[in-house]
Amino acid sequence: IPDIRIKMNEKLYLRNPEDSVLGRKIVSQGILLINKLGFEDFTFKKLALEIEATEATVYRYFENKHRLLVYLITWYWSFLAYKVMFKLNNIDDPEVKLNTIIRLLVAEPETGQYSDYIPEAEAYELVKHESSKAYLTRNVTKDNQNRLFKPYKDLSARIAQIIKELNPKYKYPNFLASTVLEMSHAQKFFMENLPSLTDSTSPDDKKLIRFLEDLVFKTIAK
């Protein structure tokens, strides 16, 4: 995948973090600290200490820690959507497209890989543990009106469109697409933390891929 620059929704920030060294540091260190502490225990005060800045400085970039979380989650889905587009560029068979997408959704990036200034493996970890907190809020309707979740919805729509290519008569492509998106990281979380909710005793990409393929292709079989 070539290096790319993700264009972020301006409603996500007060000052574009991409425009300064400090802003990029807030984002790159913010994701590390959220993954280390958990979103509940993460604060801008702790982040400011980590980057040797003032808490007020962090607030100049993001209205609150939830906005930073949504920024990071949105970045991940935007980047993943680009990877999907890149990988599917020369593929015509919708079945192969779906297989490719499932593998991209499940695969964990290698540690040390960066896109822009964000470590991909850390972004994946964040999505696995914190992604639902981006939209399970009382402000979700307003945030949705501000198009904060557009990259996630666009990726789901892309999957739904391929499902329709494979079986135009299937009635529930959006149900299935969003379910696959959610399961791809939720099941990883269950494997690591709530294993009785899964059929795997440890994080297992191959088993999860087989399950998602089984779910998708048997569900939409003609």
Give an overview of the whole structure:
There is one protein chain. The chain is mostly helical. It is built from ten helices and two strands, in the order αααααββααααα. The chain has a two-stranded antiparallel ribbon. Helix 4 (65-88) runs antiparallel to helix 5 and helix 8 (150-166) crosses helix 9 (173-193). The relative contact order is 0.12. The mean pLDDT is 93.
User: Span between N and C termini?
Assistant: 34 Å
Give the averaged pLDDT, no decimals.
93
Query: Main sheet, how many strands, which sense, barrel?
Result: 2 strands, antiparallel
Radius of gyration: 18 Å
The low-confidence runs, each spanning 5 or more residues with pLDDT under 50, are none
Which structural class do the helices and strands define? mainly alpha
Principal-axis shape equals globular
Strand line-up in the sheet with most strands: 1-2
How many strands?
Answer: 2
- Helical content stands at 55-70%
The number of helical runs is 10
- H/E element string? HHHHHEEHHHHH
Estimated share of beta-strand residues: under 5%
Write the layout of secondary structure elements.
Blueprint: H1 21-37, H2 44-51, H3 55-59, H4 65-88, H5 94-106, E1 114-115, E2 118-119, H6 120-130, H7 140-145, H8 150-166, H9 173-193, H10 205-219
Antiparallel strand pairs: 1-2
Helix pairs in contact: 1-2, 1-6, 4-5, 4-6, 4-8, 5-8, 5-10, 8-9, 9-10
